[in-house]
Amino acid sequence: MGNIRVIGPRSSGKTTYLAALAYQPEQTKRGGRAKNYTIQALNDETRELAAKAENIIVEGDSLEPTGLQYRTIDELPFYSFNIDVNFILGKREGINLAIRDYPGEIFDELELGLANSLYQEFIDECLMKDVVGCLILLTEWKKGTDKSYSRVLERFTELMDSHDRANDLRLAVAMSKCERGELWPGRLDPEVDLFDVHLPKTKATLRAKIPAKNLRFYAISTFGVLRRNDPRPNRVDEMGTDGRNSVLREARRWKPYGMIAPLYWLSTGKRMKDDA
Amino acid sequence: MLDWLKKNKITGSSEPRQSSAVLRVIGDRGSGKTAYMASLARWPNADTASPVQTVNPVNDEGNELVRKAQDLLEQGLELEPTQLDARASDVKDYTLSITLKGQFSWKNPTASMASQLVTLNISCKDYAGEFFSDLLHQAGDFRLQDYLEDCLQATGIMVLLDGSSYRKDLEYASGLDKFLTALDRTDISAEQRRIALVLTKCEQTELWVNRHKPAYLASARFPQVHRKLQSWQQMGAGSIDYFTTSAFGMLGTRFQEPNAQRLSRGVDGVTSVIKDPKRWRPFGLVAPIYWLCTGNRHKELDKG
Asked: Which of A34, B13, B116, B285 could covalently link to B102 via disulfide, CB atoms 3.0 to 4.6 Å apart?
């Protein structure tokens, strides 16, 4: 149960991630592998996203960046999911989530300071008391990125503090697109093998500012890899009209990694197996 | 001894318990006051498991509410804004009678065994939203004073806030502040009042996930209003409690989704119409009324 926000820089895969969540039910119906969870889309906005997901993920249609088409926060959709998690011994738990993803510009703008009232509105909404947690998607590690991420997140923690959320907002910080060869082996212990290695400053900033119980690190791959013994990314980048678009390489073998675990932790505070 | 037993038997089971209340419903324009009242009067697709047995309109105004619900809401249309009458005495006084099935209670096992009914008789005026904005912007107006006088007759006040209008928290808090101060000034009897803060439109996804925690939701989304009301209570002026409701309710049982088609969303909150009128079943409407009548929360009513 709870409200969750997804934030992260531009092209960090926020909307693709949510589209994949919404698309999951379709996928399982087609005889995909049995998983320990089932997802149900619960409103029209989520179903629209699911319909788009097929084009985005399988056909590689270009996904317009979230943000450019929104003039006010009210136009931004709320996605709603029910996730049933099956535990061993037949125990089941259902969680009901309301999720919103913010335009990447919001994240980038944090570094410069909040310039306009629209951004202020986003931050106020993000840090409202009935939001249980934020999923922060990070994606780059090229030179200088660590420094810039850590500045942005430093600023974010200050805002958390000024909104009286310093001690009661969970942050799931995830490296997205972990099907990339350099990252895939690090998924098993993301805090050590991804964040300590690629984004040490960012990690240190967060560890210093956020209570340990409210901070966890994750690895997410919306596309996954081909097979257990063929860890090539199940993704090809196609050149579209407006640059690179990612598509599933073998749609039949689609097996996303780590999509549910961060949401489950954000909403309940309890851990489940990280690969879910 | 025998006499005493007889007497007790009669009072214990035959007559339904009655509770009455005079209520006033206030809230911003578009906070869903009339939709609340109309849904309550219509009471569509009653759940057999619900503790509410029947809702009956008692006077003509009550019947008019039912008509409104049938003619507009069930056609998937929007309700017209209620016009602000010149005098509070002209505002329609809806009278409804709500019958609840008996509750088993350990305190009074024999009475509850006999499926004792509880009847809530309410007469209720729903002020136009302008009343609330007038509070904010003009003081000392004659009409405002007249409405406040009218409010004094009420034993319970329902303050309705559209749960998604959180950006008006400060505005609402200052409106309520003026309202409570004025009420206090006008009232010489120093009567204890109950105020129910009712968050409406909780079928909306972001509110629905926290519907079971009304006090938490109110404090999270309307911190200033919450603070104001809590301090009012602490001063001993009366008591306050929080509720979540939806005039439209949800569709489905296992995977519930809003039975509402959204038309707009903005600073003032959301506007929507019913999506599937055939499956229209409102959520949480009687819980605040039960509390306003009796001072106790009803566990089953809180569930829906």
From this structure: B116
- Whether pTM exceeds 0.90: no
| pLDDT tens-place string over residues B110-136 | 554 445 678 888 888 888 888 888 877
Q: At what angle do helices B142-151 and B129-137 cross, to 10 degrees?
A: 120
Give the CA distances from residue B78 to residues A162, B37, B125, in Å, rounded to whole numbers and listed in that order: 40, 14, 20
Q: Which residue of chain B is at minimal alpha-carbon distance from A95? A: B209
User: Residue B270, CB half-sphere, CA atoms under 13 Å: how many?
Assistant: 26
- Chain B residues touching chain A at CB-CB below 8 Å: 166-167, 204-206, 208-210, 216-217, 219-221, 223, 255-258, 264-267
Predicted ipTM of the assembly: 0.86
CATH of A2-268 given 3.30.70.330, 3.40.50.150, 3.40.50.300, 3.20.20.70: 3.40.50.300
Q: Cβ neighbours of residue A273 under 8 Å, at least 6 residues apart?
A: A36, A261
Q: For chain B, list the domains and their CATH numbers.
A: 2-299 (3.40.50.300)
- Mutate which: A80, A124, A131, A168, vs B, most B CBs within 10 A: A80
Q: Which residues contact A4 (CB under 8 A, 6 or more apart)?
A: A97, A98, A99, A100, A131, A132, A133, A134, A135, A263, A266, A267
B75 token code pair = 């056609």
Contact B255 A40 (CB under 8 A): yes
- Chain B nearest CA to A115, separation (Å): 19
Give 10-residue mean pLDDT values along chain B (304 residues): 48 62 90 92 88 90 89 86 83 90 61 65 85 75 81 90 95 91 79 92 95 96 96 92 96 90 91 92 94 91 84
Quote the CA–CA distance of A112 and A238 in Å, as a whole number.
33
Residues of A with CB under 8 A from a CB of B: 1-3, 40, 42-43, 72, 74-75, 78-80, 82, 96-98, 100, 121, 124, 128-130
Looking at chain B, which runs of residues are DSSP E strands?
17-27, 52-57, 93-100, 118-126, 156-162, 193-200, 238-244, 250-251, 257-258, 260-266, 269-274
- B237-268 as b/e, with b when 16 or more CB fall inside 10 Å? bbbbbbbbbbbbbbbeeebbbbbbebeebeeb
Residue ranges covered by each domain of chain A: 2-268
The closest alpha carbon to B210, from A267, A226, A123, A271, belongs to: A267
List, for residues A194-227, the tens digit of each pLDDT value: 999 999 999 999 999 999 999 999 999 999 999 8
Q: Output Rg (C-alpha) for chain A, integer angstroms.
A: 18
Q: For an interface test with A, which of B207, B226, B255 has the most A Cβ atoms less than 10 Å from its Cβ?
A: B255
Q: Which two tokens stand for residue B10?
A: 């009669």
Contact B248, B203 (CB under 8 A): yes
